[in-house]
Amino acid sequence: MSRYSYLFIGCFFLLISFLSFINIIYSYYFNFYLNVNSYLPPLVISFFGGIFFIFFKFKNKKLSIFDKVFFVISGYIIFPIIIALPYYFSIYDISFIDSFFESISGFTSTGFTTFDNVQYLDPSLILWRSTSQWVGGLYFLFSIILLINIFDNNLKKSLTNFLSFDTSEFFKQSLKVFFIYLLLTIIIFFILKFINFRNFDALNFSLSIISSGGFKSVNNLDYILNNDFKIIVFSFLLLISFFSIFLIYNLIFHRFKYLNYFTEDFYLLVYLISITFFLFVFFSNNNFSLILFSISSSVSNIGFYLSDNLNNNLSTIFLILVIIGGSFFSTSSGIRFFKIFTLFRFALNNLLSHTKPKQILLSKVKFDETQINYEVINKYFLSIIIFIISLSIISALLTLSGLEFDQSVKLGILTIMNTVNSSLYGLENFEFQNLNIISKFILINFMIIGRVEFLTIIILFKKYLFKN
Predict the structure, then answer these.
(1) Distance from first CA to last CA of the chain, Å, rounded?
(2) Could you list the residue range(s) of the whole structural domain that residue 430 is in?
(3) Interacting residues of 260 by C-beta distance below 8 A, sequence separation 6+
(4) For residue 326, which of 169, 182, 332, 342 is within the disulfide window of CB 3.0 to 4.6 Å?
(5) For residue 124, what are the contacts with CB-CB under 8 A and spacing of at least 6?
(6) Considering the domain boundaries, does residue 328 fall inside one?
(7) In whole angstroms, what is the distance from residue 43 CA to residue 91 CA?
(8) Which long-range contacts (C-beta less than 8 Å, at least 24 apart) are formed by 174-179?
(9) What band does 440 get if pLDDT is binned at 50, 70 and 90?
(10) Distance CA 5, CA 7 (A)
(11) How does the average pLDDT of the chain come out, rounded?
């Protein structure tokens, strides 16, 4: 298992090196020479880093859960430092803290930016921002595989078809994730081309959408999404990061043979249809495309918006959709709908069992035979408690650093849920470049905390606070 962990880190070093090389080729091919040399440091550093982790003979020992968590969290620090170098060495005179902020925002697929006018940037740097999100989304999926034993057995079984998760199975699932992720990116690109996106915008948005990122290649989406058909197609593309990345794979290869492959996605579909119907009937003013876009952008934790926004009174509802999030095995963030649904059912079943003690109402999922045990319920409940604690801490810290309380709470939610600020949440005019260093460090830390899954933080605390 230790071999896989080192390869896990080494492969991402080489991937960043490869993408740096692609950016250099792109710059020379289209005669964008202004920042071409800024991609040499990440190319060299990440190349030798990858060679070291892949070929160096580390002591072969079984890694503990703590060691794996340490590996994952270290990646959220080391890789953004490398990704920050092209920003720092560019011609735009960006400070290192702003460069690191931009790279963390990209790698965690959050989308906060210190650039006030993206369209004035060197196109190669815009592409670098989008690729940082793409790599970060893939890293998140690989980290779930590495930390699979932390989560409930149902997730593990849905990946391995009830086989043990040994080293060979890790490699098998990792390769499957990579090729599905790459294939979906290509599919999104061609669909965007079909609705008349130019090549550059289609490429950047395909990298952002699949990773549930918030970076854009244009300042305003309205110029691209200029009719209802484009808005609806784009909205459905946003939902790709809402459902499980394995959904299409399972539909093709399993054909509903095993219902447990589709249970979570089925619940997500019912949930999505319900909230769309409710908001369309009561709040949309018969503008279906706009309500679908707003919902898709929120549940997928992307946060894109159009200028012709819905009633600002809906910002609280959209923030709730951001908090809930989507599928467990997707690039979106959030507490995850299935967790909340399971806790609701568990609470309801226990309440009913007191009124009808002769009726068996314990823990069966309605549409399959999955048993939800108390250990899983405790994990789900703990993740909500940690979210509340995390939100309280970041809101308090941001308020103390000089922000208004309502801004601190909204920004805290979006930071932990790795969702870009926009008019959907009442923060369209928020400027990160004007924040002080302390506020930026607070956001940097909580963007990472939001991405590594709340339960891993508890594991780290347990390691140091409870030695036994």
Answers:
(1) 24
(2) 337-465
(3) 154, 157, 158, 368, 370
(4) 332
(5) 23, 26, 27, 30, 32, 35, 36, 39
(6) no
(7) 18
(8) 174/8, 174/142, 174/145, 176/249, 177/138, 177/141, 177/142, 177/145, 177/245, 178/138
(9) very high
(10) 5
(11) 83
**Cα–Cα distance measured from residue 74 to residue 460, given in angstroms and rounded to the nearest whole number:** 13
Contact 384, 292 (CB under 8 A): no
Can you tell me the mean pLDDT for 179-202?
94
∠ CA(249), CA(380), CA(141), 5° rounding?
A: 35
- Tell me the C-alpha distance between 440 and 448, whole Å: 13
- Among residues 306, 304, 302, the alpha carbon closest in space to that of 334 is found at 302
Residue 428: inside a domain, yes or no? yes
Q: What pLDDT, on a 0 to 100 scale, did the predictor assign at position 249?
A: 76
Average pLDDT of the segment spanning 62-84: 85
**Collapsed DSSP state (helix, strand, coil) of residue 371:** strand
438 Cβ contact list (under 8 Å, min separation 6): 401
**H/E run at residue 307:** none
Residue 373 confidence class, pLDDT cut points 50, 70, 90: low
Q: Rounded to an integer, what distance in angstroms lies between the CA atom of residue 126 and that of residue 119?
A: 8
d(CA 247, CA 59) in angstroms, rounded, equals 38
Residue 466 has pLDDT above 60, yes or no: no
Indicate if the pLDDT at residue 458 is higher than 90: no
Residue range 424-439: mean pLDDT, rounded:
88
Kindly provide the b/e burial profile for residues 251-275, where b requires at least 16 CB atoms within 10 angstroms of the residue's own CB: eeeeeeeeebbbbbbebbeebbeeb
Percentage with pLDDT > 70 across the chain: 82
CA nearest to 339, candidates 353, 327, 348 = 327
Rounded CA-CA distance 45/91 in Å is 21
Q: Between 98 and 426, whose confidence is greater?
A: 98
Q: How many domains does the chain have?
A: 1
Phi, psi of 404, deg, nearest 5? -70, 155
SS3 per-residue string spanning 293-311: HHHHHHHCCCCCCCCCCCC
Question: What pLDDT, on the 0 to 100 scale, is given for residue 459?
Answer: 60
Look at residue 437 and tell me if it is in a domain.
yes
Q: Which residues pair with 364 in a beta bridge?
A: 371
> Please, which pLDDT band fits residue 368 given cuts at 50, 70 and 90?
very low
